[in-house]
Amino acid sequence: MKYLIINSGSSSIKYQVIEMTTETVLATGLVERIGEAAGRLKNIAFPGSDRELTTVIEQPIADHANGMMLVIAALTDGEKGVISDTSEITAVGHRVVHGGEQFLHSTLITPEVINVLEKNIPLAPLHNPANLDGIRVAREMFPNVPQVAVFDTAFHQTMPRRAYLYAVPHELYERYRVRKYGFHGTSHRFVAGECARFLGKPLVACNLITVHLGNGCSMTAIENGCSVDTSLGMTPLEGLVMGTRSGDVDPALHLFLKQNVGMELEEIDNLLNKESGLKGLCGMNDMRDIHAAAAGGDERAKLALEVQTYRNRKYIGAYMAVLGRVDAIVFTAGIGENDAVVRAESLKGLDMFGIRLDPEKNSEHSRQARCISHTDSTVRIFVIPTNEELAIAREIADLTAK
Ligand code: ADP
Prior knowledge:
Elements: E1 2-8, E2 13-19, E3 24-32, E4 40-45, E5 52-58, H1 64-75, E6 89-96, E7 107-108, H2 111-119, H3 128-141, E8 147-151, H4 161-164, H5 170-176, H6 185-199, E9 208-213, E10 217-223, E11 226-230, H7 253-261, H8 265-274, H9 277-282, H10 287-295, H11 299-323, E12 328-332, H12 333-338, H13 340-346, H14 359-363, E13 370-371, E14 380-383, H15 388-401
Parallel strand pairs: 1-6, 6-8, 9-12, 12-14
Antiparallel strand pairs: 1-2, 2-3, 3-4, 4-5, 7-8, 9-10, 10-11, 13-14
Helix pairs in contact: 1-3, 10-11, 11-13
Bound molecules: adenosine-5'-diphosphate.
The site of adenosine-5'-diphosphate has 12 residues, from helix 10 and helix 12.
């Protein structure tokens, strides 16, 4: 049982091959700069526990079909390939950003599913066409195996309408499906499931706040195992302060920038998605650089940390109010898993909610899932590494077993 997991972006394909009986990653890689003058593929294999860079190909890569052919070449490479030919792949899983309101669960890909994804393009104009490219190419190259779509939005489809509706004229929802969808659902659900195991009870009995802090950041309130509110919105721009995305701003900012700075709508969209967040506040979006600069006295880097962690705190408070009883808060993704300072600052002053970190446990470095709360804390606090590819692989296993 070897699954190929694909995350197809507009100019990239990220992939993993997972051996499912043991949940072992056999190979992982990235094709980037598709459609540009200088394309590249990097393939890493895991013979035993070590990682080994087996293949680097640098050449123009015209399109996704061309990129996928290079992936197959790297995976079947005589000496270092992890499969002997494509027939060893028994299923293909695709990360799909936007499933709209139609997909509450992962689904086997059929022509009808592709049709619905095409209809959803207006909701995710940058992501869904790229995801569809990956799906079409993989269906051609692996025609005889099940292909599964796993949606970033699906986990959040349990939100009640009071959480997902914006207070705008209701016709906009009825005609254009304007509403909060939420993203990072695969990650939130994965760490929630892992956390339930730690807590020793079924996920359906758990109330959790999951905090995904990577380049993209989001927080989810989970009641009885279901998402009931989440910080990302109709698009992945709302909510927390991210690497380059602003998160919450006054929606009237668009008009102000147009009237006073002379910016066009598209420029404002670009500003809020690519030039804002941590980068907008201090010029850097890699958290490690920001800490190094802050330690050297850079006031703007300190400001960026302060604004981001304050926003995290505010959302945790809001989700405590949404849930009432919370069993655990879970930190995950690049910053959430590695950054003890951001975790501590994001939880500062929340003792009255029964939230108390153990400073020593918090500052230990580890790649393992772990509990970092004080023994007195009524809300337990965990760091749980996310693994979206494994989550997708488990979805495939569930769906194909039916
Ligand atoms: P993506 O959303 O692209 O998947 P990741 O989950 O990989 O992002 O997270 C990327 C972020 O994690 C970057 O801001 C990076 O600086 C941060 N990060 C990675 N390692 C560390 C670390 N050891 N300490 C602090 N931040 C880290």
